[in-house]
Design brief:
With about 500 residues, the protein is an alpha/beta fold. The protein folds into three domains: about 1-45 and about 235-315 and about 450-500, 3-Layer(bba) Sandwich (FAD/NAD(P)-binding domain), CATH 3.50.50.60; about 60-90 and about 315-445, Protoporphyrinogen oxidase, mitochondrial, domain 2 (Polyamine Oxidase, Chain A, domain 2); about 110-220, protoporphyrinogen ix oxidase, domain 3 (Orthogonal Bundle), CATH 1.10.3110. Helices cover about 40% and strands about 20% of the residues. It contains 21 helices and 20 strands. Strands 8-7-16-17-18-15-19 form a seven-stranded mixed beta sheet, with helices on both faces. Helix 7 packs antiparallel against helix 8, helix 10 packs across helix 11 (about 210-220) and helix 16 crosses helix 19 (about 410-425). The protein binds flavin-adenine dinucleotide. Flavin-adenine dinucleotide (FAD) binds near residues 36 and 441.
């Protein structure tokens, strides 16, 4: 019998455990234990369903439809009837200019336009930026030559530089920067173009012009489906669906792994109970899948190969999510624009008076931090109507970036107050919500800095020298749910197969 340890029970670790449970059931001679420090599985994936029918996602709210693995998993788990596509008839995103919300041009794919008329009529960008868009296809040859030139394309560049080469500074600052901050909580001057936007980098290598490349792809009918997919009862159903198929004896919730040591031909894993109590002796395993956030993985690998820690993302951004649900009678007086939500560019945080201590909450420092840290708001009842009862409004504020650490210490009531006050600057004064919750996700989004893919290639070589150890999770090749399901399952399958064959 071969024994495998999985360290970390976010979606990557649970997907790996689910895959091993399937192998076990199919008769493969394997045993496994999933160690999760928290008392629940799922990590950042968490859904709260309220008594009054709000489905509130505390972490991810959906996945990108184009990538099949989360959908395939949902179907495998019997959740096909739960699959729900985003309501793309309402797909409009606004960008905050001061306290005004200006619509992003229709038909944008990230920062690449697919409809000329809406770009040329957009009040969001100046005529110089429109001219830059119009010119980009004319430079297709030069852009392609640059991408294919060994000395350029062998390396990497920041997302900022990539966007500026195509569309100039204004598009980078006004469109690309807030879009990426709203997803990664990171700065486009730091983020790696190759790691974060592989599809656009590939499009450049093939077509030079991103606009022409996308037009051809759309002409080939590749992107007509709604852009996001979710589950009616919430994304946590993916976790609970997998969890119910994993034998309870294989789940060690509330156990944090402190170290992994070589022992004989295998590994000794030391875990301690987070609730305290006696320290159990280490357990022996033939293989280990490490599915923790980057900082924990770096700590676990330090005694085995200290270079591994240097290759992992050195920074992760923290996020705070505050959801505010307004029942239909409260929502009647609200004037929320039609759309999926808005982004707040960080280049010039909105001015305006500081909100002090109204209703007994908030202080000046908290207000200022909240203003700097608000990166985005999603109108969830419009993006996914199943998430709120008929006529109700469900807003989700996303705080991130460098100002967020000072907010992490604030209690829930203060965060909810700050979110309501900040969103009110853009949406008009908000009534008292009928439901509100706050979640803090410290160091949850690893920043793939320039050179990330080269570091990942070196990481693969070094990890391969440690027999039957694998790294999975959002620190490596994608932070999205489909990628994590796929990489978790693939790594588990391959590790089990190589152990069984040995
Ligand atoms: C606010 C927010 C919104 C997002 N929205 C989306 C979205 O809409 N769509 C999308 O596709 N992606 C989204 N993402 C990204 C996605 O949710 C994450 O990348 C993904 O959930 C991470 O999964 P993971 O398994 O790699 O890590 P995690 O979920 O971080 O899980 C790691 C687990 O390891 C455990 N752990 C840590 N140390 C130890 C230890 N020593 N021993 C045992 N266990 C340990 C932790 O407790 C945790 O449960 C979002 C992320 C955030 C923060």
């Amino acid at each position: 019998m071969k024994r495998i340890a999985i360290v970390g029970g976010g979606i990557a670790g649970v997907s790996a455990a689910y895959e091993l449970a399937l192998r076990q059931r199919a008769g493969e001679p394997i045993e496994f234990v999933l160690f999760e420090a928290a008392s629940r599985l799922g990590g950042i994936v968490e859904t709260v369903r309220s008594d009054d029918d709000f489905v509130i996602e505390c972490g991810p709210d959906s996945w990108v439809t184009e990538k099949p693995w989360a959908r395939d998993l949902a179907i495998e788990l019997g959740l096909e009837s739960e699959l729900v596509l985003s309501n793309d008839s309402r797909r409009k995103t606004y960008v905050a200019e001061g306290h005004t919300l200006i619509a992003m041009p229709e038909g944008m794919r990230m920062m690449v336009p697919t409809q000329w008329a809406s770009v040329l009529n957009s009040p969001l960008i100046s005529w110089q930026a429109k001219l830059a868009y119009l010119r980009e296809p004319k430079f297709a040859g030069q852009l392609k030559a640059w991408a294919l030139d060994g000395s350029n394309s062998a390396g990497d560049e920041s997302m900022h530089d990539f966007v500026v080469r195509h569309f100039g500074d204004e598009v980078a600052d006004t469109i690309a920067a807030p879009l990426m901050a709203g997803v990664f909580g990171g700065d486009i001057a730091t983020l790696s173009a190759r790691a974060v936007l592989p599809a656009l980098v590939a499009l450049e290598r093939e077509h030079g012009s991103l606009i022409l490349g996308l037009q051809q792809r759309m002409g080939a009918g590749k992107s007509s489906a709604p852009i996001f997919t979710s589950l009616k009862s919430g994304l946590e159903a993916l976790i609970t669906g997998m969890e119910s198929r994993i034998p309870e004896r294989s789940l060690q919730r509330g156990f944090a792994v402190e170290s992994i040591e070589r022992s004989g031909g295998g590994w000794q894993v030391h875990a301690t109970s987070v609730a305290g109590g006696p320290h159990p002796a280490g357990e022996s395993f033939d293989g280990v899948l490490v599915a923790t956030p980057a900082a924990t993985a770096a700590k676990l690998f330090e005694p085995l190969d200290s270079r591994i820690g240097e290759l992992l993302p050195q920074q992760s951004s923290s996020a705070i999510v505050v959801a505010l649900g307004f029942a239909a009678d409260q929502a009647q007086a609200m004037r929320i624009p039609r759309g999926f939500g808005f982004l707040v560019p960080q280049r010039n945080p909105p001015a305006g008076e500081v909100l002090l201590g109204e209703e007994g909450f908030g202080d000046e420092a908290g207000d200022v931090a909240a203003r700097r840290a608000l990166l985005a708001c999603t109108f969830l009842d419009q993006k996914f109507p199943h998430a709120a009862p008929e006529g109700a409004v469900l807003l989700r504020a996303f705080f991130g970036g460098p100002a967020v650490p000072s907010l992490l210490q604030q209690d829930d009531a203060t965060l909810i107050y700050l979110a309501r006050a900040e969103l009110g600057r853009f949406l008009g004064k908000l009534p008292e919500p009928s439901i509100a919750l706050a979640r803090r996700w410290p160091n949850s989004l690893p920043l793939y800095a320039v050179g990330h893919m080269e570091r990942m290639a070196e990481l693969d070589v070094r990890v391969a020298r440690l027999p039957n150890l694998r790294l999975i999770g959002n620190a490596y090749r994608g932070v999205g749910l489909p990628d994590l399901v796929h990489s978790g399952r693939t790594a588990a399958r391959e590790l089990a197969a190589s152990l069984v064959a040995a």
